[in-house]
C-alpha cells in the first residue's frame, strides 16, 4: 500500500466533503402544498428559512377549520421541502461518505477525524 497515495486520496476526499458542505450551506430548497397555497423555504441543512401562506388558504367563514387546514398545509410543505433536502444531501454527500468506508487498505468506518 502506497501511504503517500492514500494520504493524497484522503486530502482529496476531505476537500470534496468541504465543497459539498459549502454547497449545502448555500442551497435554498422550496417545498409546497395545496397547489402552491403554502410554500416553505429550507436551507440545504434543513433549517426553515421562510414560510409563505397565500391568503386564499384562509377561509374567514370558519376560522377553526381554516386554522387546521393551514396547519396541515404548512406541515405538508415542510415535509415536501425536507424530502428535497434529503435527496440533495444524499446526492452531494452520499458518494463521499460511502467512499470513506471503502478506501483501499480496508479502513472500516472511514478515516478518523472526518
Structure description:
The chain is of the alpha+beta class and 114 residues long. 55% of the residues lie in helices and 16% in strands. The chain is built from two helices and three strands; from the N terminus they run αβββα. Strands 1-2-3 form a three-stranded antiparallel β-sheet. A hairpin with a 4-residue loop joins β2 and β3. α1 packs antiparallel against α2. It starts with a helix and ends in a 13-residue tail after the last helix. The relative contact order is 0.18. The C terminus is likely disordered.
Explain the layout of strands and helices.
Layout: H1 3-26, E1 28-33, E2 38-43, E3 48-53, H2 63-101
Helix pairs in contact: 1-2
Derived structural class: alpha+beta
Radius of gyration: 21 Å
Output the strand order for the largest sheet. Answer: 1-2-3
- Describe the sheet with the most strands: 3 strands, antiparallel
Report the order of strands and helices: HEEEH
The backbone outline, from C-alpha atoms, is: rod-shaped
Query: Total helix count?
Result: 2
Nearest-integer average pLDDT: 82
Task: Estimate the strand proportion.
Answer: 15-25%
In angstroms, what separates the terminal alpha carbons? 21 Å
- Low confidence ranges: 102-114
Fraction of residues in helix: 55-70%
State the total count of DSSP E strands. Answer: 3
Amino acid at each position: 500500500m502506497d501511504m503517500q497515495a492514500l494520504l493524497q486520496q484522503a486530502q482529496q476526499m476531505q476537500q470534496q466533503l468541504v465543497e459539498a458542505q459549502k454547497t449545502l450551506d448555500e442551497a435554498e430548497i422550496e417545498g409546497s402544498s395545496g397547489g402552491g397555497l403554502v410554500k416553505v423555504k429550507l436551507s440545504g441543512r434543513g433549517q426553515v428559512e421562510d414560510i409563505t401562506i397565500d391568503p386564499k388558504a384562509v377561509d374567514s367563514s370558519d376560522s377553526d377549520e381554516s386554522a387546521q387546514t393551514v396547519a396541515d398545509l404548512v406541515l405538508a410543505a415542510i415535509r415536501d421541502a425536507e424530502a428535497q433536502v434529503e435527496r440533495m444531501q444524499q446526492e452531494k454527500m452520499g458518494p463521499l461518505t460511502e467512499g470513506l468506508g471503502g478506501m483501499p487498505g480496508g479502513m472500516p468506518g472511514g478515516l478518523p477525524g472526518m
